[in-house]
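Tokens as discussed.
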């Protein structure tokens, strides 16, 4: 098959593949770019790995980032499998590792102030519970009133069906306990058992919770999400010296490798490292 025939055959097969529309569009574009680059006479059937190695170098020479190079190689690999050329063995680029995006200390202060000033005690409770417990947004949305046990001096929140259907129980930070208690006092009437409800009395959706957290951040100039709060929780635990096994349990991780990411340096750490170098004179 010539280049045009390869592209046509791939596009027909791609249309039937069990992939999202966005993935199909991305793969189609990247495969078209690869076939345009492909030297005349190059044989993917016999020289597949050598050709892809050269294409990887071509992308790197064009100053493409490692993640971009890898996304193109993924698309080319799918082309090879789809057209029966086999799975390529050419290596991908190493991606620099960094900790997940978490709020820096000054940003944490801004967020906490924003949460404290929230118009609704519900929104304040969502912000502080997310910050001090690291719950996933779906876990926050799934909480029922009975999942939060409060007393004058302590409190707990129970996640019954976390990721992987994992159960965990977390102690509540005093500020989170106070905020949840205030919300329970203000909570408007509803027949729903949900902890967080909307004005109509229905369970607040994950999307609505995300919007509340984003707004709390936006009001003080922060670009963030519920994921940012979760990552901040994990990063704070690791950096205060909490045992990694305990952090994994509190985060609901099934693998320690997921938790160890929080001990990796952040972009801010790298900036501070350079800024701390001595200046001559």
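Sequence:
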């Amino acid at each position: 098959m010539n280049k045009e025939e390869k592209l046509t055959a791939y596009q027909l097969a791609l249309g039937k593949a069990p992939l999202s529309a966005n993935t199909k569009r991305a793969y189609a574009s990247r495969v078209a770019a690869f076939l345009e680059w492909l030297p005349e006479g190059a044989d993917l059937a016999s020289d597949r790995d050598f050709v892809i190695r050269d294409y990887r170098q071509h992308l790197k020479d064009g100053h493409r980032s490692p993640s971009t190079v890898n996304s193109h190689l993924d698309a080319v690999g799918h082309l090879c499998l789809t057209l029966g050329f086999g799975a390529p063995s050419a290596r991908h680029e190493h991606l620099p590792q960094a900790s997940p995006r978490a709020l820096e200390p000054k940003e944490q202060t801004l967020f906490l102030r924003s949460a404290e000033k929230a118009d609704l005690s519900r929104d304040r409770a969502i912000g502080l519970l997310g910050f001090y417990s690291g719950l996933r947004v779906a876990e926050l949305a799934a909480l029922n009133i009975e999942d939060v046990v409060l007393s004058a001096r302590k409190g707990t929140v129970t996640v019954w069906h976390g990721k992987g259907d994992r159960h965990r129980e977390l102690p509540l930070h005093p500020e989170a306990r106070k905020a949840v208690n205030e919300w329970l006092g203000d909570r408007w009437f509803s027949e729903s058992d949900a902890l967080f409800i909307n004005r109509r009395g229905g369970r607040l959706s994950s999307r609505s919770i995300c919007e509340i957290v984003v707004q709390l951040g936006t009001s003080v100039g922060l670009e963030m999400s519920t994921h940012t709060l979760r990552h901040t929780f994990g990063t704070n635990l690791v950096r205060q010296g909490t045992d990694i096994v305990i952090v994994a349990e509190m985060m609901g991780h099934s693998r320690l490798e997921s938790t160890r990411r929080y001990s990796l340096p952040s972009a801010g750490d790298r900036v501070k490292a350079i800024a701390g170098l001595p200046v001559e004179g």
